[in-house]
Specification:
About 35% of the residues lie in helices and about 35% in strands. With about 200 residues, the chain is an alpha+beta fold. It has one domain. The strands form 2 sheets. The chain has a 6-stranded mixed beta sheet. Strands 6-7-8 form a 3-stranded antiparallel beta sheet, with helices on one face. A hairpin with a 6-residue loop joins strand 2 and strand 3. The chain is rod-shaped, with a radius of gyration of 33 Å. The N and C termini lie far apart (about 100 Å).
Length: about 200
């Protein structure tokens, strides 16, 4: 056995001679397994947290993008509106639209409707849908779309009204994520009816 330990310091050689055995004890295996399990749990926790954070960040970006596009549509439609009818979960807009001929102006009907998963815009039988379903799933929340009008008071000489709208995704109880909120105000000269 001495020829196998050649080149190894004497202190280590004496330890090997005294504790020479084959295999591991059950205690050593239990300790190694416990340490391994703790490391795996820590790594999994870090991975899961970063994955959740990444999903929520992507949801926030998609939410802002959808709301920005929706705001642009509303701004265009309300700025040239003749009449605006505000109903629960729906906005009906009748607006002036330029035709194909010079000085050709017609009226166009546009309907904004909230659904369970997003906001649908119907313009001349062409539908555009802003999907908030993936965002709701990522945040474990519910979408709310609210609209209110701010009419000029009797003392004001202004002919313009303000439409305030808000798109909000409210997380369910127990979710630590704060609400996603997008608010905008749009000025219009259109006649507003609240129903």
């Amino acid at each position: 056995m001495n020829h196998d330990l050649k080149g190894i310091p004497l202190i280590i050689q004496s330890y090997i001679k005294r504790n020479h055995k084959t295999g591991f004890t059950i205690i050593e295996i239990l300790i190694a397994t416990t340490v391994f399990a703790i490391l795996i749990a820590i790594i999994y926790g870090i991975f899961r947290h970063s994955n959740t954070t990444n999903m929520q960040l992507n949801a926030k970006i998609a939410f802002q993008s959808n709301c920005g596009k929706l705001a642009e549509h509303l701004r265009q439609d309300l700025s040239s509106a003749k009449t605006i009818v505000i109903k629960p979960h729906r906005i009906d807009i009748q607006r002036y639209s330029l035709g194909t001929e010079e000085n050709d102006v017609s009226l166009e009907n546009i309907i904004y409707t909230t659904t369970q998963t997003g906001i649908l815009i119907e313009r001349n039988k062409i539908k555009t849908f802003y999907d908030f379903d993936n965002i709701e799933k990522a945040t474990d929340g519910t979408m709310v779309f609210s609209v209110e009008s701010q009419l000029p008071s009797e003392n004001e000489t202004s002919e313009t009204s303000i439409i305030n709208y808000e798109v909000r995704i409210i997380p369910k109880h127990g979710n630590q994520l704060s609400s996603f909120i997008y608010k905008a105000s749009i000025t219009t000269r259109g006649k507003i009816q609240n129903q």
